[in-house]
Write a structure and sequence with these properties.
2 copies of one chain form a homodimer.
Chain A lengths: L2 H14 L6 E3 L6 E3 L5 E11 L10 H19 L2 E11 L4 H18 L2 E9 L3 E11 L14 E4 L5 H9 L7 H12 L5 H6 L6 E4 L4 H12 L2 E5 L7 H18 L6 E5 L4 H6 L5 E7 L3 E5 L5 E2 L15
Parallel strand pairs in A: 4-5, 9-12
Antiparallel strand pairs in A: 1-2, 3-6, 4-6, 7-10, 7-11, 8-10, 9-11, 12-13
Chain lengths: 322, 322
């Protein structure tokens, strides 16, 4: 048995230990088999992370696996889908037991948090990279796409923005901070919490949704384009965490929220009549703007005047990343 | 717009041009959405190909794309599944228009041949590699797994074996051959034909199946292990192509068939009563052995005596491949 066969067995053991709603056949055959209840659709998303581009090659393997799976599952949350399973294509230079054990541990931790099961994959020798494909289910016609925002809807986000981007300088060792500031930011970076519950709660209510990966301005641009509307963002309403404000000050924190990335929180458009009900149920729904007729994204100051953002667009980790 | 955004648009255009049975939402949102008819299961398989490990970095991009998709779809054939779609995670050092155009062309050619649609993906900068995840559908309970072979079944294959392995020396430029020998072998290597029709025809008939990727002996070992039986292979019954026999002689051709790889033809166990019907319908069903009680795989000569194969196990392309 080759070392890569051993790796496969390692992950197979982790996968079998988990519950399998919707999974008729897991790892070990030519294909996995998934079941879908009548009247539901399958949501599918694929993400690749490359060492040196999307993460430092020396990243802690537990944290890397946890983050990679969390980021991928966040795409299911953005569609209002309930997770079923995922495949992992792992390419790595060699089989180091300690690295693999930590990686499998991080994967298992996030898989349990998200109730998602490893159903298949492939292991190859080569430069370190990961491709995850995630599967979820959503009732027919209730998936949250980017295309339904309507004039008059509120623009909302699912939590405090910018922490992931603010953490990047800490991740890269370019900046230091006391533990009470660094720890919550690093936790947001390495352990994203896909807003699966919020996504399900928004079914039939939100008119458009996505998860914020490239910064609020850029991602709102996707909703505006797909829906054929303009999105207005009121800068003063951006929810910012105490840790981010302490690290970067108000202006720096706002820049992270608007033009940073790696939030993996939902942004969505919501008819106003649904706001109070969702908030009363305890869902984190923060109004940050509104939908108007037109095109593109406009940032507004407290007087409702347009502002040109200081920075726009975001490159994950490395400058060449995409 | 970055160059990688341009790449995504290139593939998006190719995907939209194709028919979309089973695809409710394709490329461009957080997830694709698939539909599954009532009473069917979704079959999923993921494969990674890494430059320098699974294929030469200088491989023709049209042929590379065609082969990568064909190899992946072959896993659907092995389950008796009908293809729906696939995702492509493409990592490449840069965006060269000629390379991308040829790659997209090869992908589109094989996608049309297999009636499978590009439904999503991810494009990253990094060392050249591809991860494809393929999706198919199969009626509940009719998927062909590796686990159902029964004592008394015939062991069958879907065509002439060893051509892909025989072609490898030609692919690598280690060997030359006249066109009438080289061309059919190279076609088998670069343009695998997933046996989707045969897979569907075997539903409810074959008791176990897989596609041969690592050589008949190794892959039959998977069926034997999963089914808890022994498989006997009669060496004299191996179907071998004229081109492979001309290139390598009888002994070399047999070695490729038994211990080579890259065939991507089906191997399956079949109750004898189904043989004549399938052959009468024109399906390529070649009996190469039988299922007995016991464990493992045994190779037999024409007198029914056990033979020790000359070579066993196979490394794709590079010696470190897996």
């Amino acid at each position: 048995m080759g070392e890569f066969e051993l790796i496969r067995r390692y992950f197979a053991a982790a996968a079998c230990a988990q519950a399998g709603a919707g999974v008729a056949l897991g790892i070990g055959d030519d294909c996995a088999l998934l079941e879908l209840p009548a009247g539901e659709q399958l949501a599918v998303s694929t993400d690749t992370l490359v060492a040196g581009v999307h993460f430092p090659a020396a990243a802690d393997p537990f944290l890397l696996a946890q983050r990679a799976l969390g980021v991928s599952v966040s795409d299911l949350a953005a569609m209002g889908a309930s997770p079923i399973g995922f495949t992992l294509a792992l390419t790595l230079p060699g089989a180091e037991a300690a690295w693999l054990q930590a990686f499998a541990g991080g994967l298992d931790r996030m898989a349990q948090d998200c109730a998602v099961r490893l159903i298949g994959g492939d292991t190859s020798r080569g430069p370190l990279s990961l491709t995850l494909t995630v599967f979820g289910r959503v009732p027919h016609g209730l998936a949250l796409t980017r295309a339904g925002a309507r004039v008059g809807d509120l623009l909302c986000v699912g939590g405090e923005l910018g922490d992931g981007a603010g953490a990047l300088a800490l991740v890269l060792g370019q900046r230091q901070a006391p533990a009470e500031i660094a720890e919550p930011l690093l936790a947001r970076y390495w352990s994203p919490r896909p807003q699966l519950g919020l996504g399900v709660a928004l079914r039939g209510k939100a008119t458009a949704a996505l998860d914020i990966s490239d910064g609020l301005l850029a991602d709102c641009g996707h909703i505006a384009a797909a829906s054929g509307v303009a999105l207005l963002i009121e800068q003063a309403r951006l929810p910012l965490s105490p840790a981010l404000l302490a690290l970067l000050g108000a202006s720096g924190a706002r820049n992270c929220a608007l033009s940073g990335g790696d939030d993996y929180l939902l942004a969505f458009t919501l008819p106003a009549e649904h706001l109070a009900g969702l908030q009363a149920q305890g869902w984190p729904v923060h109004v940050v703007g509104r939908v108007e007729a037109g095109a593109g994204v406009q940032l507004l100051d407290q007087q409702g005047q347009g502002i040109t953002p200081q920075a726009r667009g975001y490159q994950h980790f490395g400058s060449d990343g995409d």
